[in-house]
# Entry
Amino acid sequence: MKETVTTQELGQDITDPDSDQAIIGRVLAGNRDAFRTLISRYSDPLYRHALCMTGSPDVAEDILQMSFIKAFQHLAEVRGRFDAWVFRIVANGCKDWLKNIRRTHLSYDEDDQPSGYATPEEDLDRTELKSDLDRALAALPASLREAFVMKHVEGRSYEEMADLLGTTVGALKMRVHRAREALQVLLEEKYA
Amino acid sequence: MLDDLNPQGGRGESQAPKRAREQRQPLTDREVPLEQARNMAPIHAWLDGELPESAVRTAESARDVDFWRKVTEETARRRTVKTPAYLEAQIMAALPTDRTADGVQAWWAREVTMTPATAAVAAASLLAVGAAATVAVLRAIR
# Structure
């Protein structure tokens, strides 16, 4: 018998109409449009994860779309935190893609993102580092890349990472350290 | 076998020439001594928020610290990347109209939640099947 975690145990107020659990309840009751709130609430960190893992905005969008569709279809099976559950769907989607599909392009364009750099030279340096970092990240094994992205791009704590990935803080520290050492070897000739 | 066929050193050679010989060998033919490897522990501690930058920055580590400052600036900038505006509407449009249509599982794959009622029904069913099987076997024997 599967353990059911109550919303009180998750620290969510069951009476809060904006809680994930309340929204899930509305979707399950037939209010399809309520799912939009869950998408807008969690899409940014999930998109960033998929983008950094795959290096491709198109693939990241596809993975995010497939993950939310899967989440919608299996919403009744959510046990515990929705954000952790949907993160695992996206993370597994990224790993499956890395396993099965050959990457065709590794850099992503952010022409719509404003540049915060003072001079064209700084902007050029930043663009170069961005693409070099993308290439170096792509050279890492998926588990190291995932740990590095979660720690440095998503800014998560080791405890949060351990909770999301179902592993220990020690193992994740080791992965992040190994990823940093590998990245330093790959990039230091040019930047250090 | 006591003979050492290596022309660069056989038995009885002192430790000092042996070390000199090891240093002459190409790097790929010997293990890299640990003391030559960069000690990244302070850098990790700084990047993990356990030490301030001032505690880590030394003459030797300044290049590493500067390198990681550049990388963390770049990764922090990535933290501001947003989902494309059209994606939310695209996902909503792609959701199946019947939420359970594709998500419904076969009866044998579904999760069973054991309540007192379902336990009683399961026990009664097992008893009935067992009794029917016993009766069938006894009739077949006669």
Q: What stands out?
A: The first helix of chain A runs from residue 20 to 28.
